[in-house]
Design a protein that fits this description.
This protein is an alpha/beta fold. The chain has two domains: 246 residues, TIM Barrel (Alpha-Beta Barrel), CATH 3.20.20; 74 residues. The protein is built from 15 helices and eleven strands. The strands form two sheets. An eight-stranded parallel β-barrel has the order 3-4-6-7-8-9-10-11, surrounded by six helices. Strands 1-2 form a two-stranded antiparallel ribbon. It is globular and about 60 Å long. The termini are far apart. The structure holds flavin mononucleotide (FMN).
């Protein structure tokens, strides 16, 4: 069984941190469906945590049921990062993760996220300060480099290992690529050869079989899934069931089929929407409903029709009706 520091990760599958998406509602959905080893929180600003900002506090709320849970922090000041990591540990999170991969301009500014890949001296100071500050497992998530000419993920991997980091996640793209093109899994294999701490592979695992292929072709120790899970939150259960068939991995309930029915999909979306409406302010709720209907629509038949329809919606209640209506039509099609 995979161990990251003292944390047993079973099955070896991670829900990726995704800003705006892996909030507490979605993490609980994924955890309740099952098959996931660790769920990650969307990234939180170290400065925001230390300053006690409202947003940071809100983001860091989680339910015991979500655990094992990783909280990811980003920032560029070593002392602030170390203090934020201490607060992450005090919050009861199982794992602290450092973001060195975010390519968004507002994060790159001030040498945060992927920008730190361009300054390994500062990165090393952050890693060693944070490592000394906490005793829970510490991981680092990064990309291949800033761009094609500056691919330094091997050097960064070695730096992580030398500074007592317990595992690293590699997203097989450069920061310049953002989310375009194809993730280069061969580089995950390369990193695995280079270092002896666990390597978590990430990028373009969209179908259950992709995860098995990534494990087999790269030798990585675990797989992290982002967008594939927002289209299909059952993906972890589907992969875990396949892993279990292969070699007895994982703790999956054999009674439940890993494949969701159309009705389960419908209920999941409606339950999710109800939770969002009950717990979020009206403006945030509307934003989340729009965002998630879009992602979910990629995982259901004729999703394009649902996507078109939600563009015109202005009220939270209309989203549930649109989803109900979409599934009734699908059921009619199935019955026909
Ligand atoms: C909307 C969105 C938000 C993201 N936010 C974060 C983040 O907060 N921290 C992080 O390390 N990566 C973030 N990522 C990157 C993902 O964690 C992941 O590395 C990337 O999507 C590739 O994996 P995938 O192909 O399985 O989605 C984000 C990706 C998306 C699409």
């Amino acid at each position: 069984m995979l161990k990251i520091g003292t944390l047993a990760v079973d099955p070896p599958l991670f829900l990726a941190p995704m800003a705006g998406l892996t909030d507490r509602h979605f993490r609980l959905i994924v955890r309740r469906i099952g098959g996931v080893g660790v769920v990650s929180m969307e990234f939180v600003s170290a400065q925001g945590i230390v300053a006690g900002e409202r947003l940071a506090k809100q983001l860091m709320v989680f339910a015991p049921e979500e655990r094992p849970l990783a909280i990811q922090i980003y920032g560029s000041d070593p002392a602030t990062m170390a203090e934020a990591a201490r607060m992450v540990e005090a919050s009861g999170a199982d794992l602290c993760d450092i973001n060195l991969g975010c390519p968004a301009n507002k994060v790159l500014k001030g040498c945060r996220g992927a920008a730190l890949m361009g300054n390994l001296k500062l990165t090393e100071e952050i890693l060693s300060r944070v490592r000394r500050a906490i005793s829970i497992p510490l991981t680092v998530k990064f990309r291949l480099g800033l761009d094609e000419r500056r691919r330094n993920f091997l050097e960064l991997g070695r730096l992580c290992e030398a500074n007592g980091i317990d595992a690293v996640t590699l997203h097989g793209r450069t920061a310049r690529q953002m989310y375009g093109g194809q993730a280069d899994w061969s580089q995950i294999a390369r990193l695995k050869e280079e270092i002896s701490i666990p390597v978590i592979g990430n990028g373009d695992v969209n179908q259950p079989q992709d995860a098995l292929n990534m494990l087999a072709t790269t030798g990585c120790d675990a797989v992290m899934i982002g967008r594939g899970a927002t289209r299909n939150p059952w993906i972890f259960r589907q992969i875990a069931a396949r892993l279990q068939t292969l070699d007895g991995h994982g703790a999956v309930n054999r009674e439940r089929s890993p494949e969701p029915t159309l009705d389960e999909r419908r209920r999941l979306i409606l339950d999710h929407f109800r939770t969002v409406v009950d717990h979020e302010e009206a403006g945030t709720a509307l934003h989340k409903l729009r965002l998630f209907t879009r992602w979910y629509s990629y995982g259901i038949p004729q999703g394009v029709l649902l996507r078109r329809r939600i563009q015109t919606l202005r009220e939270a209640a209309e989203f549930s009706l649109a989803v109900e209506d979409h599934f009734s039509r699908l059921n009619l099609d199935v019955a026909a």
